[in-house]
Amino acid sequence: xxxxxxxxxxxxxxxxxxxxxxxxxxxxxxxxxxxxxxxxxxxxxxxxxxxxxxxxxxxxxxxxxxxxxxxxxxxxxxxxxxxxxxxxxxxxxxxxxxxxxxxxxxxxxxxxxxxxxxxxxxxxxxxxxxxxxxxxxxxxxxxxxxxxxxxxxxxxxxxxxxxxxxxxxxxxxxxxxxxxxxxxxxxxxxxxxxxxxxxxxxxxxxxxxxxxxxxxxxxxxxxxxxxxxxxxxxx
Length: 235
Known about the structure:
Elements: H1 2-30, H2 41-44, H3 54-69, H4 72-78, H5 100-125, H6 130-133, H7 152-167, H8 172-188, H9 194-211, H10 215-226
Helix pairs in contact: 4-8, 5-7, 5-10, 7-8, 7-9, 8-9
């Protein structure tokens, strides 16, 4: 048995390496827009205040005040999903001049990389959601079952806006304003503290600063702008 295994071992190694190779390629490809370690997340996300501190109680007070004063229009706003479709109405006819399919695929790939980075820092600090700390908080919607700090919505909203602004520069102001409102809306919704949003916006800008400098992103933008636009219904 030992001799047989020794004879088969080189073959097994080749098979394992061959099967694993696509996984390594996929991992490398998945980090083409935001190289690992390219943003010093720890430096941008300071430790949050302790739950029994005056600072944390102030954060909770803001959440409760916004809950008491939120309007039906605000509730409707914060219930909307956050994806690229949240921003496309701001692009108008300019969206018809690019390849929308490539645009969505590129932005979705970037967001996947961004999410992987910020989920790690969320897990590090593990700050509970407002409704977990205080039962008087009634969130508008159920948040992801991950920690609150920093806000993933605030991060992604800024990244969406910044990257779309690279492709549609004339819409930058409107895109960034929507990103800010999406972030603030997370406090109104009762699923985040103000510190989550402010830190998330700072981190989102740091991520975007790196992403827009990557050759992979520049090439993607060029393809999005020059490729024949995909038109729904065309045969």
